Amino acid sequence: MANLWRLWKILFVFTRYRLDSLVPVEQLPLSLRILLWLAPWRLNPVPSRLNRGERLRLALEALGPIFIKFGQILSTRPDLVPEDIARELKRLQDDVPPFPSKQAIALIEEQLGKTVAELFAEFSVEPLASASIAQVHTARLFAEGDQPGKEVVVKVVRPGIENVIERDLQLLETMARLLVKYSDEGRRLKPLEVVEDYRHTIYGELNLQVEASNATQLRRNFNGSDLLYVPEVYWEYTRTKVMVSERIYGIPVADVEQLYAQNTNMKELAERGVEIFFTQVFRDSFFHADMHPGNIFVSRNNPQKPQYIAIDCGIVGSLTEEDQTYLAMNMLAFFNQDYHQVAQLHVDSGWVPASTKVHELASAIRAVLEPIFEKPLAEISFGQVLIQLFSTARRFNMEVQPQLVLLQKTLLNIEGLGRQLYPQLDLWATAKPFLERWMRERFGPKAAFKELKRQLPGWLEKAPQMPGLVHGALTRLNHLDDTQQSLQQEIIALREELAEQRAQRRQQSLGTLAIGSGLFVWWQAFALGVPELLGLSLSGVGVLLLVLR
Signal peptide location in the record (predicted)? Predict the structure, then answer.
């Protein structure tokens, strides 16, 4: 009944905002077209004051937090949805009403096995913030010796959210299957893959121990850095549905007025954001993949060398060494507008099938990107170039690369944020030297020496075994040679035997034919009473019997 009620609510919202007008009816089977044409909701006019993107955004907001989150993720996929819809979906807010504090306190006590009064010296009943998955309360730990109690935030997952998520995911998946089945455009947009990405993302955010481990790793990667600060996680107070971490005081990165008020170096701030992104991707292969403005703050210390503060590490991305290398080489290639190299790298990396004709892919990439490069570099969106590049490659059956989708989304967020802070930001000028330096460090003499040092202990450990290993390998080689020779001899003998059998069968066939002919002549001679033919035929048969014996 709960599922039926939820489905009824979705249908009500669907018809209220006339989302059926977004469906490509001309691609549906005739029966469905007739059904849609006769549907009672067609009596409601399409809201003329709202465009299609606004109607979709308002519908998602009406359906609640799970659909809001889905719309937020969809807004980062302009390669899959039209630009006007993606732009409107970016306006979705994740500011939802908090759930009762009694439920939050009960869940904290259930997870940590103690009362809130035993766990914290102070605990704020009123939540500091509330989102679709969890809400946050402020607290203070008990003092340790002469040290005052540390200020912390307590993040609590919404009770029963898993059931809501699973129910809505099933409905989203059903709608995606219908879109794929009845729409060519739907197949191109890959809605099932989008829903699956969403499933993976949302369930990752539900386990706060995963988020805590991500935050700890990111904090370790930037330990002592003046670029990025990540709050400390208190693991003794962290479980799957509760996480306690250090409380930070910073300026929200979107609050430009406060940043200007403290005389922040905005150019430095924007460029440092780009440097943080590329450091996470290429140095650490571990990047915060949800860096929207709500998750980023700026430290109040040292405004001329501003430091970022990152929270909410529920979504992270990583790349393999191969992906790192191919991505860096791809970026450098289209920095230099070497489209053939870009195409070749797509084939070499396995992102497109090996059968792809490189010159055709290069030509398609050139046709899409060349007009973009006519603009000044400072006006070109690096993220949009990546979107155009991957969209073009998809026409050549490029498989969806989830790690690249996360990367693309994060890059778009970083670039948009950087240009909001400093409109003159030239991301290309910041990124290219970084990538060139990384390539030198990755493949230069220092990198080779470092790899040698890394492998040397293992080689030294195996050194005493090397003579035995070499002797065993040579013995196996000799045995292999003997086996190969034996096989060759057997093959030759088999071929000779087969040839002999074929010759014997040929002789037997000829002999049978000759004997049959001779007997036929003998029978004719006997019937006609010609003794000469009779003697000749008997002599011929006798000779053949002697020869073929």
Answer: none
Establish whether 135 is an annotated binding residue.
Answer: yes
The reply to whether 106 sits in an annotated binding site is no
> Are residue 257 and residue 337 in the same domain, yes or no?
no
- 425 φ/ψ sector (left φ>0, alpha ψ -120 to 50, else beta): beta
Two tokens at 310?
Answer: 């990152």
**Residue where one domain finishes, among candidates 316, 347, 362:** 316
Q: Does residue 187 form part of some domain?
A: no
Q: Which of 290, 312, 323, 426 is catalytic?
A: 290
Please tell me whether residues 262 and 113 are part of one structural domain: yes
Is 130 labelled a binding residue?
A: yes
Range of the domain at 14: 2-94
Q: Is 183 inside any structural domain?
A: no
Q: Which two three-digit tokens encode residue 355?
A: 């059968």
Total number of domains constituting the chain: 4
- Is 131 known as a binding-site position? yes
Alpha carbon distance 140, 117 (integer Å): 11
State the pTM of this model: 0.67
Three-class SS state of 138:
strand
Q: Does 155 count as an annotated binding residue? A: yes
Q: Is 134 annotated as a binding residue?
A: yes
Distance CA 332, CA 439 (A): 10
Compute the distance between CA of residue 397 and CA of residue 388 in angstroms, rounded to an integer: 15
Domain boundary (316, 339, 368) is at 316
285 carries a ligand binding annotation: no
251 and 343 both lie in a single domain? no
Closest C-alpha among 317, 343, 71 to residue 194 = 71
Please indicate whether residue 184 is annotated as part of the active site. Answer: no
Per-residue pLDDT of the chain (549 residues; tens, 9 = 90+): 555 666 667 777 777 777 666 665 565 666 666 666 666 656 566 666 778 788 888 888 777 767 777 777 677 655 566 777 877 877 776 566 788 999 999 999 999 999 999 999 999 999 998 877 889 999 999 988 778 889 999 999 988 888 878 877 887 787 778 777 766 655 555 677 767 777 777 777 888 999 999 999 999 999 999 999 999 999 999 999 999 999 999 998 888 889 999 999 999 998 898 889 889 988 888 988 877 777 899 999 999 999 999 998 888 888 888 888 888 888 888 778 888 888 888 888 777 888 888 888 889 888 877 777 766 656 667 666 777 777 777 777 776 666 676 777 777 777 777 777 888 777 777 787 888 888 887 776 665 666 566 666 766 666 776 676 676 666 776 666 666 666 677 777 777 777 777 767 666 655 555 555 555 555 555 555 545 444 444 445 454 444 444
